[in-house]
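Review form for a predicted model. The reviewer records the input and the model, then writes brief findings.
Reviewer: anonymous (R2)
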Amino acid sequence: TEYESSAPSDTTNRVCSPLKTCDDINAGSTEYQSQAPTATTNRVCAPLATCDSASHYEHTAPTPTSNRICRAHTVCDEATEYELTAPLYDADRVCATHTVCTDAQYISAAATATSDRECTAITMCTVDAEWERAMYTATSDRDCQPLRVCGGDEYESGAPDATTNRVCSPL
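Model under review:
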């Protein structure tokens, strides 16, 4: 509880002083013991680091004898990643890689900074029942429409194919 702040001499007695007490880490302290006391030196207390939650998180919590360690938040690469889990005071941001659609899929929902891209299988038109009115794109599905059925007072004047509807003409 004390240390020798002045050594004895031939004419004076030693002087002892009370040890400095750092704030209690469990009671919301603002400091930690950065240097332990010895028989002839006082304890040294230092201010605890403060993490700027906008850009950093607490990687390691402080102890009575160690400082808090702050680390910069991971930054997701917006071209290839999205934020899967938002950062917290004591946890880093978690990034995930965007899904890459296959050649048999189109992008049905675009990726954002906080959501993944959604891919949906490209519709295949039913042969002899549908025709392709519009081809698929990277962000839209193929538009399949039912083939026209000629009525009793019509005849087929133009045969359908994969991208053309049947043409019916009056008898």
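Findings: The first strand starts at residue 2 and ends at 6.
Further findings: The radius of gyration is 37 Å.
Recommendation: see findings above.
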